[in-house]
Design goal:
Oligomer: heterodimer
Order of helices and strands of chain B: HHEHEHEHE
CATH architecture of chain B: 2-Layer Sandwich
CATH topology of chain B: 60s Ribosomal Protein L30, Chain: A
Number of helices of chain B: 5
Shape of chain B: globular
Structural class of chain B: alpha+beta
Number of helices of chain A: 3
Structural class of chain A: mainly beta
Number of domains of chain A: 2
Strand content of chain B: 15-25%
CATH architecture of the largest domain in chain A: 6 Propeller
Largest sheet of chain A: 7 strands, mixed
CATH superfamily of the largest domain in chain A: TolB, C-terminal domain
Distance between the termini of chain B: 36 Å
Helix content of chain B: 25-40%
Radius of gyration of chain A: 23 Å
Strand content of chain A: 35-45%
Radius of gyration of chain B: 16 Å
Number of strands of chain A: 31
CATH class of the largest domain in chain A: Mainly Beta
Shape of chain A: elongated
Strand order of the largest sheet of chain B: 1-4-2-3
């Protein structure tokens, strides 16, 4: 198997001149507040700094523009409306030309290619104030990873304007589905967050479900039926090597998730009609039982500080969300609304828990504070389930299945805006969003 | 299941009955359980076995078609219905009369729940059947349970009709003798 996370030495080459400290009103989007109108931006083709660079000048700009547009926070002013033409990356910007077409954020870029190496530069301008925002940046790497460089530019632009960390240079592990619905073939797959560069990680011979990515993005865990019964597989995403872990004789083991330090797994073991949570130290193989309730406890997820685990249990009679210390102990119920609550997942920011809720024949993705307060439903459909957080905790991705349709991946802001289908080559389910890549 | 495969199944059943040759179906025709056997065997493996004549009370075909190889559950429930208990009583009698067979009890859920919860729910349903058979005198050593959650529906029509037949526990008789 090829290396999945391409090694990309990224050089942050200091300033590229034109350093103009932001003054007056900085260009800023507060994404926690209701954004009524997306910010108009212009992203002209990257200026090719040599002839080999010209083959990427349009493609890089397209990826950046798509990333920003897909957030729902930005609106591209199309290129055919542009008045100014960039002749060189260092030429001074004619702000009046951009103001005339109501552009607020201008991104300029340049690309140079030599052999299989490329370097990409960009600058961000606040058109209204006529100022450069922050310093220019340069990224260098292999031409194979040209999309990643466009994602890096997108992350930097997003971050400067919103004040939040970006999430474009990240990957998503998911289940790729083929075949008839009553006898599906499922494979673990990985792709860029925008649906590009899909690679299959398993061959489809064994049923696999619900993968999760390690916090460092180097490994994944998932449930496999390769032995004929649910077992947990731990896969190295660089080498493709995998092993079964957390075997408990006589039990079905499933629903694994990494601890924030990546050293432990928490998972479910079902036997005798009862499902409990266990914790496994991956290095030593040491295992401990976290719950012992005559009920179902599954879909566990650590808090980002590693101190707590949220999970679902039907100990009260229906599925509800609980929080307990990550070493086990008393669990506190936090969901009390109408309906059933499942698949709680702690936000990487620590402030929210995303969940699946089913009520009155509909399924929802929602978020609540970690004490269960301020519940907010973000979606409603025939079947929505299994949220996973973007690395910046501002977007969740999940599985949506329309009635009689195939499952697909969707994403939505935690504000409930910008519901979007994430493109995949075929039916897809169980997304697990990995970290922002270094 | 597509309409075509349904028709083929009906035709195969008619053909089997008409020629009255229990071996005609060989190991590939899963009797009345053909539609539900997707999870009965490991993916990719082929198990050959003679299902026998359903009129022979000791045949696997009889177990599947006359006694019934599955019981059904209501939404989110693991309780056996009277009808389900009656099917399991028949299974227990067959297993008592045919001690050379082992069984795998598959638990399944409908699609109206989250994936991992449904694995737990399927395990509970399989365990309910296993405990019932144990209470009827069948040794636990002859049984294994597995849950497929909502991964192996009998039919996926996204309607109540399908959910009702997908919430099930299927008793799969394995050809091998118990150790």
């Amino acid at each position: 198997m090829t290396r999945l996370f391409l090694f990309l030495p990224i050089l942050l080459l200091a300033t590229l001149g034109m350093l103009a400290p932001a003054q007056s009103q900085p260009l800023r989007l507060q994404i926690t507040e209701g954004v009524i109108e997306p910010m108009p931006f212009a992203m002209p083709a990257f200026v090719p700094e040599n002839s080999a660079g010209s083959q990427y000048s349009d493609a890089l700009a397209r990826v950046v523009a798509a990333n920003l547009t897909n957030t729902g926070l930005f609106r591209e002013v199309p290129r055919d409306a542009h008045i100014a033409r960039l002749s060189s990356f260092d030429a001074s910007v004619t702000f009046s030309d951009w103001r005339a077409i109501n552009v607020q954020a201008l991104i300029t870029g340049a690309v140079e290619v030599s052999g299989n190496r490329m370097s990409v530069k960009f600058r961000l301008f606040d058109v209204l104030s006529g100022q450069q925002m922050g310093q220019g940046m340069q990224f260098a790497g292999s031409t194979d990873s040209w999309r990643r460089m466009a994602h890096k530019v997108s992350d930097a632009v997003y971050s400067r304007i919103t004040g939040e960390t970006g999430y474009f240079d990240s990957r998503v592990v998911f289940i790729s589905e083929t075949g008839p619905r009553d006898n599906r073939t499922k494979r673990v797959a990985i792709m860029d967050q925008d649906g590009e560069n899909v690679q299959m990680l398993t061959d489809g011979r064994a049923l696999v479900i619900a993968p999760r990515v390690a916090p460092a993005g180097d490994r994944a865990v998932f449930t496999t039926y390769e032995t004929g019964s649910p077992r947990i597989a731990l896969m190295n995403l660089q080498s493709g090597q995998r092993q079964l872990v957390g075997d408990i004789p006589g039990a079905m083991t499933f629903s694994p998730r990494f601890s924030p330090d990546g050293r432990s797994l928490v998972f479910s073991a079902a036997r005798g009609g009862n499902t409990d949570l266990y914790r496994l130290e991956v290095g030593s193989g040491q295992m401990s039982q976290l719950t012992s309730s005559p009920s179902i406890a599954t879909s566990p997820s650590f808090s980002p500080d590693g101190r707590f685990i949220t999970f679902e249990s039907d100990r009260s009679g229906t599925s509800q969300i609980y929080v307990m210390p990550s070493t086990g102990g008393e669990a506190r119920r936090i969901s009390f609304g109408q309906g059933r609550y499942s698949t709680p997942v702690w936000s990487p920011r620590g402030d929210l828990i995303a969940f699946t809720k089913s009520n009155a024949g509909r399924f929802h993705i929602g978020v609540m504070r970690t004490d269960g307060s301020e519940e907010r439903l973000l979606t409603a459909s025939f079947l929505d389930e299994g949220p996973t957080w973007a690395p910046n905790g501002r977007v969740v991705m999940f599985t949506r299945e329309s009635q009689g349709g195939d499952p697909a991946l969707f994403s939505v802001d935690i504000s409930g805006r910008n519901l979007r289908r994430v493109p995949t080559p075929g039916p897809a389910s169980d997304p697990a969003w990995g970290p922002l890549l270094p | 299941m597509t309409l075509t495969s349904k028709i083929l199944l009906v035709l195969a059943t008619i053909a089997l009955a008409a020629c009255n040759n229990p071996r005609a179906g060989g190991g590939t025709f899963g009797g009345g359980g053909a539609d539900g056997m997707g999870g009965g065997f490991n993916d990719g493996s082929i198990q050959a076995g003679n299902l026998g004549d359903p009129n022979d009370p000791n045949s696997i075909a009889h177990f599947q078609q006359r006694i019934g190889d599955r019981v059904f559950f209501t939404t989110d429930s693991t309780s056996l219905s009277d009808e389900g208990r009656s099917v399991l009583n028949g299974q227990a009698r067959w297993l008592t009369a045919n001690p050379q067979y082992a069984i795998v009890i598959e638990g399944h859920a409908d699609e109206r729940g989250t994936r991992e919860y449904n694995v737990s729910l399927g395990e509970r349903r399989a365990n309910t059947v296993m405990q019932y058979l144990v209470a009827q005198g069948i040794s636990a050593n002859r049984m294994r349970t597995v849950s497929y959650g909502k991964e192996r529906p009998v039919e996926a029509c996204a309607a109540q009709r399908c959910w009702d037949i997908n919430r099930r526990a299927v008793t799969v008789v394995s050809g091998g003798r118990t150790s």
